Amino acid sequence: MSFLKPLSTIALVIMAFIFIQCSDDNVKLTTPVKIRLTDAPAQYDKVNIDIQSIQFHSSNDDTDENGWQEMDLLNAGVYDLLQFNNGLDTLLVDQELPSGTVSQMRLILGDNNSVVVDGVSYDLDTPSAQTSGLKFQIHDDFIAGIEYKLWVDFDAARSIVKTGNGKFKLKPVIRTFNEATSGSISGLISPAEAMPTIHAVIGLDTVSTIAEENGKFLIKGLNAGTYKLSIEPIEAYEKKEVEDIAVTIGEITDAGTISIEATVQNN
Asked: Signal sequence: where (predicted)?
């Protein structure tokens, strides 16, 4: 009897180990995900986008037959993109999602899309956005336990097209970036009345913004490298270029105060 008792104890330990191991195998790994909406400014009064859903295309087993999974959108409805520029953003998604490889995301829009020009509101025609969604490429991983932060940068200026009959269409220009793989450039335009568009140029790539009323600007989501700032003010001021702006991942490079000269008037 003394010999059988240790054997039964060992058997129970082995069975418990197997049970725990099987339980661990059934645990689904998750990743905390935050997705924010931001915008490159545009010369409109408002750009209203009706966001009804956001989805991602993943390799995990919880997607539908087409590989898409719904996210928990915090607030469905109309967003004025022009409220979220020069470093401002708004949180769209904040949830735990299954870990895995993500290839695409898409925004599904409703019917209440419009642009306001000189105080007049015009409907935005967005047929493809309402059916298949506004798709953008991600090709990234949701790693278990590591928070994933993604910004959806909606370029309002390049996304709105005026048609020949006085109507407006939405042809979205969207880029995405995450905090771990991008840097930023900030600066101050003097005088602020120059109201320039600022382009950060590296090779064939350009990312743009418009300075705020106080002259400040911030361009986010830049890859590491050395950039040229191409500054295009209103007609009363001269264009300007600033070379050798070094961008480092995870940091904001301060370009300092950039002075713009007034155009010389010939009498």
From this structure: 1-23
CA max distance for the chain: 116
- The domain 183-267: what is its CATH number? 2.60.40.1120
What would be the CATH architecture of the domain defined by 27-181?
Sandwich (2.60)
pLDDT tens profile 162-192: 887 888 998 888 888 887 778 899 999 999 9
Peptide bond into 127 cis (omega under 30): no
Question: What dihedral angle (degrees, nearest 10) is formed by the CA atoms of 81, 86, 91, 92?
Answer: 40
Q: Answer yes or no: is pLDDT of 18 > 60.
A: no
> Domain boundaries in the chain?
27-181, 183-267
- In the chain, DSSP assigns E strands to 30-40, 46-58, 68-70, 77-80, 90-98, 100-109, 114-117, 120-125, 134-142, 148-155, 160-162, 168-170, 174-178, 183-190, 197-202, 205-210, 216-222, 225-232, 240-247, 252-259
**27-181 matches 183-267 in fold:** yes
Q: At residue 220, what is the residue type?
A: K
- What DSSP assignment string belongs to 172-214? --EEEEEGGG-EEEEEEEESGGG--EEEEEETTEEEEEE--TT
